[in-house]
Each structure stands twice: as C-alpha cells, then as structure tokens.
Amino acid sequence: MADNFKRYTVTAALPYANGPVHIGHLAGVYLPADIYVRYLRSQNRDVKFICGSDEHGVPITIRAKKEGITPQQAVDKYHELIKKSFEDFNVSFDIYDRTSSKIHHETASDFFLKLYNDGKFIEQTTQQYYDEKAQQFLADRYIVGTCPKCGNENAYGDQCESCGTSLNATDLINPKSTLSGAVPVMRETKHWYLPLNEYEQWLREWIVEGHKGDWKPNVYGQCKSWIDQGLQPRAVTRDLDWGVPVPVKGAEGKVLYVWFDAPIGYISATKALTPDWEKYWKDSETKLVHFIGKDNIVFHCIIFPAMLKAHGDYILPDNVPANEFLNLEGDKISTSRNWAVWLHEYLQDFPGKGDVLRYMLCANAPETKDNDFTWKDFQARNNNELLAILGNFINRAVVLTQKYYNGAVPARGELTDYDKEVLGVLEGMPLVISTYLERYRFRDALSELMNLARLGNKYLADTEPWKLIKTDEERVKTIMNIALQISASLNILMEPFLPASAQKLSSMLNKPVGKWAEAGSADLLAVGHTIGAPELMFEKIEDAAVEAQVQKLLDTKKANEMANAVAEPAKENITFDEFSKMDIRIGTILAAEKVAKTKKLLKLTIDTGIDQRTVVSGIAEFFNPEEIVGQQVSILVNLAPREIKGIMSQGMILMAENPDGSLAFMQPSKPIMNGGGVR
Ligand SMILES: Nc1ncnc2c1ncn2[C@@H]1O[C@H](COP(=O)(O)OP(=O)(O)OP(=O)(O)O)[C@@H](O)[C@H]1O
Ligand SMILES: [Zn+2]
Predict the structure, then answer these.
(1) Atom 27, ligand 1: which residue's CA is nearest?
(2) Rounded to a whole number, what is the distance in angstroms from the first to the last CA of the chain?
(3) Which pLDDT score is estimated for 2?
(4) Which of 576, 161, 549 is nearest to 342 (CA)?
(5) Lowest mean pLDDT among 300-304, 334-338, 563-567, 643-647
(6) Residue pLDDT, tens place only, 261-292
(7) pLDDT tens figures, 62-119
(8) 335 CB under 6 A from ligand 1?
(9) Element holding 73 (H helix, E strand)
(10) Could you report the predicted ipTM of this complex, rounded to two decimals?
(11) 604 CA distance to ligand 2 centroid (A)?
C-alpha cells in the first residue's frame, strides 16, 4: 500500500531537557515513530527521522537556579543522558540534535525575522505580570494560578496541564509568582504576537474540512474544538534571558517563546543532518509526519502550521498521529514526583531486554485512550506472548531443522490443503500489517505480526513433525520448509517492532534481514541454505524481577508521602497539673522477645530504676528483639496495667512516628540513670 509521496520527513517531539526519558514518552511518541520509520526504510522509501533536545524555556531556568548551575550546564546533563538512552533502546533517529546549537539559533532567528519583515506579527505593548521581589517578568511557568476552564489551582501561565487548555498568564485566577510566591504586579512590556485569528478560516478548511477522514479522532476532535472556540493572537516572545534572542532592535532582554522555537528545531536538525534539507521541508512531494503526545497537539496542529503558512516556503504536516497518555500502575506518570519507569534504569535492570519493553509499550500503546502500564502485565506479555508464541515457534523451527537436517533447509514436496492455506495467510500478511502501519495503527499491526507467529505455532502443533519423523520423513521436509519460510518472513516483518530480536533471528537463519517487499514469499530461504545455531530470543521473566520493580515504586510512593506530609495540628491545651500526672522515666531494655502468634508485638523487660517490669509494645515490625536490648527508652510508668495477649503490660514505651509509620525510640541525648524523670 504505497502513497504517492517521494520522500518522508518524520519528526518525534523534542524531549524537554529537564529530566530523563520515561516509558510514557516512549509509548506516546518515540516507539511508534521508530516503528513507522523502520517500516518505511524496509519499504525502501526515502526517509529522514528527526529529533533533538528542547533546551529552552522557563522550566530549564528554574531548575538551573535551584541547582545553582547555568541553564547550559543543566541542559548538557540531560541532553547526553537522553541521547544515550535512545541509542541503547534502538530508536533509529537520523539525527538527534539540540536547540541550544548555533545552527538552531540561526534558523529560528531567521524564521522570526522573515515573519517580522513580512509584517506577519502584531507588535503590542501590554501590561504583563511582574515580580517586584525577583525583579523579573513572569512568563509561562514562572506564574501559577487557577485555571479558568477546569479550576486546577496549579495551572501555568501558558498551559493548564490538567485540562490541556493553552492559556495566557492574564487568564489565571489568583496568579502567584513561582519565583518568590509574591502576588505579581502589572508592568508594561512590548511583545510580538502571531495573529492566529487571521488563520482561523484557513485552519478550518485545512483541518476541519480537509483532514476529517485521515487524522486520528482524538487529534481531529481537539483541533476542531479549538477552532470552533475561536483563536486569539498569541505572543511568540518572552521577557527572559535564556533562549533565542529576538533579532530586532529594541528587543533586548527578550527571547523567542519556547514553543515558537522548538518546532523550528525539526528544521534546524534536518539542516544539520543534510545539505539537501530543503527537499525534506519545502517540496510538496515530501510527506511530513509529526509524532507527539496529546498535550502537544495545539502546538503541532495549530500554532506551528500557522507559522509555516505565514512563512510561506514550507510544507504542512500530512498527519499528526498524536497518542493519548500512558499511566503507571494507576497513576499519572510524573517527572517531578519521580513516578515513572526511567528508560536508562530499565535498560540497566533488564539488560538485553529492550525489545520486551518495546513489545509491551506497543501492544499496550495509548493510541485511542489513556492506558496503564503495570509490571504484572509486562511479565505476562513477555512470558505468555513473546516467549510462548514468537520465541517458541522460532525455537522449534530452528532446533528441529538443526536436528533433522544439520541446518540445511529441506525441500517442499506435494502440498496439502492445510499447507496451502498456511502459505496463503503468509502471503497476505505483509499487506495486512503495512495497511495498519500506514494508518498509524501500531497495536493492530503488532497483533497481526503475533498472529503470524501464532499460525506458525499452530501449524507445528497440528502437524507434529517430531512424531511424524518416525513414519513419514518426506512429509516432515515439507512441514519444516514451511515453518522456516514463515520464520524468514517474521524476521522481516518484526524488525520495525523488535529490531534487536530481528538481528538475533537473522543470525539464526544465517541471512540478513530482508526488505518488506520480500516478506510473504514461500521461497525466502533457498533449499539447501544452511541456517545457524539456535539462540534464545526471549527468556522467562521471573516474579522476583518484577517484584523488585514494584517495590521500587512503593518506595517512591512512600518517599513522596513523607515529603508531602504535614504535621497534625496541635491538640487542645491542657493544664500543667494534667501534664504532671504523667510519670515518665528513663529506663533500659533488659530483654526483648516476639509475642507468639502476633506480627507487631514485642514483650520487653525494662529496668525503670524503680523496678523491673514487663511492657508489651507494638514495635515488632520495626525492631529486631536482639538489636534493642541495652537501649535506653522513655517509659510512662503510671499507666494503668493492661493484659495484652495474656501478658500483663505495665506501662508504655514512648515512640516518635514518621508519616510512613516507621518508629524511633524517645531517648535521652546522653545516658541518664535509670529512673530519671522526664519533665
Ligand atoms: N505519559 C505520557 N504518555 C504519552 N506521551 C507522553 C507522556 N508524557 C509525555 N509524553 C509526550 O512525550 C513528548 C515529550 O515530552 P516532554 O519532554 O515535553 O515531557 P513532558 O510532557 O513535560 O513530560 P514529563 O512532565 O513527564 O517530563 C511529548 O510529545 C509528550 O506529549
Ligand atoms: Zn484546566
């Protein structure tokens, strides 16, 4: 299923260089983009796959300030980390550039200047929020307030992350500076605006009328609703000192808005990649596709196209197949809350298993609605699908061929109806999969790929060559030939999804991974061709491995709760007399043992200075009996005795408690005689 384009420019959202890559990024953007591009390359199409770090904007300057480093130092760190983890995950960008580069500054600057000189901007002096304490204008994330649309109290000056609405700082209710917490004042400042209202009619024709059929419903729906609400002029400059300086006189101390410069980053990265870059951006025979997550739709479908249109020289995206969001174990993935599976950590914890994550994230991709990643599901997908279906089939085909024929591909004899049916499905499969891929339906495409492996498995299970070998050697040759031909097609068709496994299979089959057009053939492996030794493509993921990951998340949750915990308000006042009624002493633990058949209770023997007594204390989850003998504690000695689990408890040990429930003894800061009073 070919379209009529001569070449392809495929971009993946520029990751923001203030944190590492997580599974949400991958499932939303980079994995589908990589699958698409690998597929196009397999189709021998001319494609450039473009990405890079987005290094400007307020969150970078905020982070740098916090860490006491320069913004450049802040982005250097994450740019390298992100770039490397993409490489390790086999994301096959043709270039991974960055927006702090010289070529990008020039390109973005020239772009602005062209629009400026052509009179495409409105120049406006307006009142904007200013923080008198920090002596700075408050753009974008320097200001928070309540979203007028959904009531989220932490909406930013440019966008509400809760409902996705793009905002102006002046839209916020109860605005507050994130720099100093101060309520900002209004000050005059000059900025340049792109009058989106002037592009409204054109956008309506291009998207609402023009792309009703081919854009994803979630993308189309968002665009239509924005256009229907009416578009407003949008400022494309900011009062900041980090970014691409506004290249006109009188604009000192101002830079381009990060969402003005970032998409131009796709163009500058292409420039850095090839002197032929213009073909990929200015020729109507080029198909431009932007892969992004849903929060970037407005920028890629409304603002950037309006910029390109205003410029005049550029093509527009043919499609913007944005995904919805991936969540993690029921919660929104968040860099600031550390609620994520980080790619670089995954690759460390599961070495050589990049493809397992690729499989999981594609099979479970948030293509039409938000989806949830769970470790249990991850394990099941590996063990029950990759290993049990794909791995098992390939392994049988290769192992039996080695065993029966020393690895030489046997010839087919006469075909049964079943053989013909199987070869028929094989022949049709490349078109089925490519039809889905061309429509950005990666889950369906992957599911068809697995169906082919399933078919192979079923074919072997039904024909049982391992039994037949004793009675009908000729028939087994046909069966094994067909199984091998299916394996060889799988090798081609799986490459976009599972590139590392495809390399393994290629070495097992002793044949380079072929091109898409060859897949489906019943003669990919010539009779007599010698295949290589079997290798395990996938292995079982044990409970312990995923339990460790779940524990890591539980630890994060605990740490977050601790960080967010607020102390309880004070209780009602009491009199000194009431306080004095409590007789609290310092004592020493002489003996400790677990109370039988309980989880939480320890039986303690305490030297209180006045006597030795028994106290039952609910601290067994936090202390080993052996380790606490000899420790000094505070004990309330005049608490009325009480029987607990058949033991008479005389008094109470005082404990301090963390928000997560963990406990510590209340101890004197230097040794005190047993019996010493606490006042
Ligand atoms: N959980 C997610 N599911 C799907 N796509 C996501 C998810 N998080 C981010 N993305 C997409 O990944 C791309 C790069 O994200 P970007 O670097 O801008 O980070 P972000 O949206 O600020 O995420 P975070 O706040 O988690 O760091 C964007 O297109 C974004 O829409
Ligand atoms: Zn909102």
Answers:
(1) 335
(2) 85
(3) 56
(4) 549
(5) 563-567
(6) 999 999 999 999 999 999 999 999 999 999 99
(7) 889 888 999 999 999 999 999 999 999 999 999 999 999 999 999 999 999 999 999 9
(8) yes
(9) helix 71-88
(10) 0.95
(11) 55
d(CA 518, CA 362) in angstroms, rounded, equals 24
Rounded (5°) CA angle 588-594-596: 145
* Per-position DSSP letters for 255-288, written without gaps between them: EE-HHHHHHHHHHHHHHHH-TTTTHHHH-TTEEE
The Cα 270–Cα 288 span in angstroms is 12
What does the mean pLDDT of the chain come to?
95
Average pLDDT, stretch 408-423? 98
Q: Which domains does the chain have, with CATH numbers?
A: 7-110+259-327 (3.40.50.620), 120-254 (2.170.220.10), 343-518 (1.10.730.10), 576-665 (2.40.50.140)
- Selection from 287, 360, 386, 347 nearest residue 36 by Cα: 287
Residue keyed to tokens 């393994």: 504
* DSSP symbols for 358-421: HHHHHHT--SSS-EEE-HHHHHHIIIIIIIIIIIHHHHHHHHHHHHHHTTBPPPP-SPPHHHHH
Cβ burial of 386 (10 Å; 0-12, 13-18, 19+) is buried
Q: Round to whole Å and give the CA distance between 82 and 84.
A: 5
301 is in an annotated binding site: no
Query: Residue 51 annotated as binding?
Result: no
| Crossing angle between the packed helical segments 58-67 and 71-88, to the nearest 10 degrees | 110
Specify whether the CB–CB gap between 493 and 449 falls below 8 A: yes
Q: Could you tell me if 486 and 455 are in contact, meaning their C-beta atoms sit under 8 angstroms apart?
A: yes
Query: Do 508 and 534 meet the contact criterion of CB atoms below 8 Å apart?
Result: yes
Q: Which structure tokens are listed for 7?
A: 């070449």
Residue 372 in contact with ligand 1 by CB distance below 6 A? no
Atom of ligand 1 nearest to the CA of 293: 31
Q: Is the pLDDT of residue 57 over 50?
A: yes
Q: What is the pLDDT of residue 1?
A: 46
